[in-house]
Write a structure and sequence with these properties.
heterodimer; A: 474 residues; mainly alpha; Transcription Elongation Factor S-II, Chain A; two-stranded parallel sheet; 5 strands; disordered C terminus; B: 454 residues; alpha+beta; DNA primase, PRIM domain; 2 domains; five-stranded antiparallel beta sheet; four-stranded antiparallel beta sheet; metal-binding (chain B)
Chain lengths: 474, 454
């Protein structure tokens, strides 16, 4: 694929077979620079929409509709013959954008795979079979004799996952490693290492292939990027690509905002006034138990780093609590290391980034754990109690609980923010450190309706994808 | 800073830290465990050759398909007496391994993954920019600690364990072992007593060693029924109109019997109000819980079978509640699962680069050897009968040198453990490793023939 300036030379039509491409290799197309960017932005809107929906915990059937709608709205083209090209071009542009760090690759991989999943499910069965053949999957349907021997178990699984039981169902037998998501959800019968998957579960098999291809391709693209493209395209594509990548991920909360340093003596005060519930809860538990398990230490520790707690203060902070439970000596031996590690002072010296809402929501706290997203992981009773302690009024509390019941955890947190601060939060809560920063800003400015202020402060700090996209488009 | 990080690769340091503390306490009780005892153990008893044979997986043979770099790419880590933690140790032969262990006398030996290159030379490879130092193989491992069951047992808490609560570990072994064999098709599985408060499991089939992190996580999730954390009351959640065959089998073959015939009475699960309230909390129907509560509060006389009687009442009432349907009947299973189902430390199993304590280590707090457990008769395993270091050394001094072979352990009470390891685990494992090496070698030869014959 080559990007060219305005005039278009040629455009090869690949128009054969399915409308769902596998993106195996970059198309031999020439692309106008404007299209290069505009197509990518359109696709980014789709991906961003999917990502938001996932973090709000949408159900699969809601996702299906949402993804297809997003696709139809954003991936239109005035010439229907161009639809496929737009699809392919935008995918490959974004590959370039999102190949550059592990974190970007991970995000892109997961969202593109989700997109592919719902588009695949939307294809008619004969197209699905054709796509399966394109992936060179060697699996055959199980014979009737074999089906009879495991029929009872297959039906039991079908009942367990609420699928209708059919007697003439087609099952494929595949190594369980090929369908990890079905194994993880106990959505298949597994015997002697083989999973029996129903025709409507074939998508999982295809997805595994799709993801593994894309994952490898992203690493290769990254190599090409560092070895060639970055230098060759310094003036032309690189600025576009960099703008595109920052337009999604929002601000990097690894660096505390300007002039924001906090000192130890203020920490109790700001915890009360400005910590989101997930962090306030950890903070409270730490003070109560003088201990937190690993997941809690990571979630709170990195948040505090993002808030502006310097390494020395962080060590003092954790030491003060932990030494009451385990003694100062044991603290130095067993816990200090991981704190310095979080600040990039040990081990592979990566400066770790505070966790986003999406990461916290998708965590799986177990027995003894206090981390995770309270809106998702607390029982309703405990959540109500916690919100009352934050002095969230009755009415607002019911609104929050309502959002939680619909699994809109970030919206629930946003409503809590608004109730506590008596001020709107238009951008929504996407990150605990954003919650904290917004809270501090409101408290500092003492202006209750602070939309203009927020907007001012948002310069160079764009936390909402749409702003950036607007800037690019205008 | 007391802790000396000799190797600074500790970024994914994932070992059980509290054993360091336990060891310190232990020094006050020299008759159970000390460095000199350990030196003697490493000097005379530790089964180096068997460990080496195991972790070589047939690659130490003469077959042209053997990968002689294999054992040398395996990470070991040592925790030494003075709290020094050495990561990324690697050894090219059994004698290198033996000499290092004898010289350093580690209080704990952990086994990590096999890397793409020799882990002790990883810095040399990191210069190139591309990170080619990466884990490529690791046994699928499970770690189960009795301390994670504190809300399901009343006899002990924390790291303590007794014969009343040890059956929880037996249940875990039975449930997981059966699933690993029958469902996932693995056959080379080693269960090991962790020396104090739990068990470890090593799944060593080639296919298991090569699983990626996502596949490992999938298996862990397949086993997971716990959705709760400290802030939600319901810990086990069995949803859906029916249970998955794996859960049904676990329930009918293991959990139900252990719950009704053992734990119900041995743990006195319904003994008093505080305890039965915990169980009533799991039933989401006010009318049922208040009826049961009323009956139990008015009938306080303590009988031998009070637990059984109350459990039967609870079951009858829930099962008879036809109009409320499946949801309530499912509560019975949820209660059984809550008090019996295995609780895995999930993080240990999910990642290839997680380290796990080696079999045949000695636990510094208890002085007990981490011996293999035979899953076929795991109900007979008694943690308090596991050989203690001082006992073994005594046996060496007094009755020793009677073994038939040239192995010192033969005459000690560790003999049966090593024999089990060798005959029931190692021999079948190495047999299938040889077959695998042969097959893949032939395939390679065939392939190169094909590519030549163009």
């Amino acid at each position: 694929m080559e990007a060219v300036r305005s005039q278009r030379k040629s455009l090869v039509s690949t128009g054969v077979g399915s409308t769902l491409p596998l993106y195996r290799s970059a198309p031999p197309l020439e692309v106008r620079l404007e299209d290069f960017e505009l197509y990518a932005i359109d696709r980014l809107r789709v991906l961003k929409g999917i990502s938001d929906a996932l973090s709000r915990g949408k159900k699969p059937d809601e996702m299906e509709k949402l993804v297809l709608d997003l696709w139809k709205t954003n991936m239109r083209h005035q010439h229907s013959s161009e639809l496929l090209n737009k699809d392919i071009i935008s995918h490959f542009v974004l590959r370039l954008v999102y190949c550059r760090t592990e974190e970007l690759r991970k995000w892109f991989l997961s969202i593109e795979t989700t997109l592919f999943r719902y588009r695949f499910r939307d294809e008619p069965p004969e197209k699905q079979r054709a796509l399966m053949a394109d992936f060179d999957l060697p699996y055959k349907a199980v014979t009737i004799a074999e089906y009879e021997s495991v029929k009872e178990k297959l039906n039991q699984v079908a009942r367990a996952i609420g699928q209708p039981i059919t007697t003439d169902a087609i099952y494929y037998k595949v190594p369980f490693e090929e369908v990890p998501e079905l194994v993880a959800g106990r959505r298949v019968f597994i015997q002697k290492g083989n999973a029996y998957i129903a025709m409507n579960q074939v998508v999982s098999l295809v997805i595994t292939q799709f993801r593994s291809h894309l994952s490898k391709a992203l690493v290769l693209t990254n190599r090409k990027w560092t070895s060639m493209i970055r230098e060759q395209e310094k003036d032309r594509l690189v600025p576009i690509i960099e703008a595109l990548s920052t337009s999604y991920l929002g601000p990097d909360y690894n660096q505390p905002r300007e002039h924001a340093e906090i000192s130890l003596k203020d920490i109790d005060q700001i915890a009360k006034s400005s910590f989101p519930l997930c962090m306030g809860h950890l903070f409270e538990k730490l003070q109560e138990d003088h201990h937190l398990k690993h997941g809690g230490r990571m979630q709170l520790g990195l948040f505090l780093k993002g808030v502006g707690l310097k390494l020395d203060d962080a060590l003092a902070f954790w030491r003060a609590e932990f030494s009451r439970k385990v003694g100062a000596e044991r603290f130095e031996k067993e816990y200090a290391y991981s704190i310095r590690h979080n600040y990039g002072k040990e081990g592979k010296r990566t400066d770790y980034t505070p966790y986003s809402c999406q990461k916290i929501i998708s965590s799986t706290p177990g027995v003894g754990d206090h981390h995770g997203c309270p809106y998702r992981h607390f029982s309703e009773e405990n959540l109500r109690a916690a919100l009352t302690r934050m002095r969230v009024g009755n009415r607002a509390l019911e609104d929050v609980i309502d959002k939680v019941r619909n699994r809109h955890y970030q919206l629930a947190c946003t409503l809590t923010f608004e109730a506590v601060h008596g001020s709107s939060c238009d951008a929504g809560v996407n990150h605990p450190n954003q919650y904290y920063n917004d809270s501090q800003r409101i408290l500092e400015s003492q202006v209750s309706s602070s939309w203009t202020n927020t907007k001012m402060a948002c310069k160079g700090y764009l936390c909402h994808c749409d702003f950036v996209i607007m800037d690019l488009v205008v | 800073m007391n802790r000396e990080e000799v190797e600074n690769g500790g970024d994914d340091m994932l070992i059980d830290r509290d054993e360091i503390e336990q060891r310190r306490l232990e020094n006050a009780v020299p008759e159970g465990f000390n460095a000199d005892y350990l030196k003697a153990y490493y000097g005379k008893i530790f089964p180096y050759v068997d460990m080496f044979k195991w972790l070589s997986y047939g690659n130490d043979g003469k077959h042209p398909g053997c990968d002689h770099s294999y054992f040398g790419r395996r990470e070991f880590s040592f925790t030494l007496d003075n709290d020094i933690y050495l990561r990324f140790q690697s050894f090219n032969s059994v004698s290198e391994l033996e000499n290092a262990i004898k010289e350093k006398c580690p209080f704990k030996i952990d086994i990590g993954p096999v890397y793409s290159v020799d882990p002790s030379k990883r810095h040399a490879y990191s210069q190139g920019g591309d990170n080619i130092f990466t884990p490529v193989e690791k046994e699928l491992v499970f770690d189960i600690d009795i301390s994670d069951y504190d809300d399901a047992r009343y006899c002990c808490s924390g790291a303590d364990v007794c014969l009343e609560c040890w059956p929880l570990m037996t249940i875990a072994i039975k449930v997981i072992d059966t699933a690993l064999r029958d469902d996932f098709g693995f056959s080379h599985i080693l269960w090991v007593y962790s020396g104090r408060r739990g068990v470890h499991c090593w799944v060593c089939d080639g296919k298991a060693r090569r699983l990626n992190n996502e596949q490992r996580a999938a298996i862990v999730d397949y086993f997971r029924v716990y959705k709760g954390n400290e802030n939600s009351s319901k810990k086990v959640s069995l949803v859906g109109p029916a249970l998955h065959p794996f859960l049904v089998r676990s329930h009918t073959e293991v959990l139900k019997d252990y719950f009704e015939k053992r734990l119900l009475s041995s743990q006195n699960l319904f003994l008093n109000e505080e305890r039965f309230e915990k169980i009533l909390e799991m039933i989401p129907d006010e009318s049922v819980t208040s009826e049961l509560r009323g009956r139990w509060l008015s009938n306080k006389r303590s009988r031998e079978e009070i637990n059984v009687a109350r459990w039967d009442q609870l079951k009858n009432l829930l099962q008879s509640n036809k109009q409320k349907g499946q949801g309530l009947r499912r509560c019975i299973e949820e209660i059984v699962f809550t008090f019996t189902y295995p609780r895995l430390d999930m993080e240990v199993s999910k990642h290839m680069n997680h380290l796990l304590k080696a079999p045949f280590c000695v636990h510094p707090k208890t002085g007990r050897v981490c011996v293999p457990i035979n899953p076929k008769n795991c109900e007979e395993f008694n943690p308090s009968a596991v050989p203690i270091l001082s006992q073994l050394l005594g046996e060496l001094n007094t009755g020793g040198f009677k073994g038939e072979g040239d192995n010192e352990w033969d005459g000690t009470s560790l003999g049966d453990c090593v024999r089990y390891f060798r005959e029931s685990f190692l021999q079948p494992l190495l047999k299938s490793c040889k077959e695998e090496i042969e097959t893949s070698y032939n395939a390679k030869v065939q392939q190169s023939r094909n590519s030549i014959s163009w």
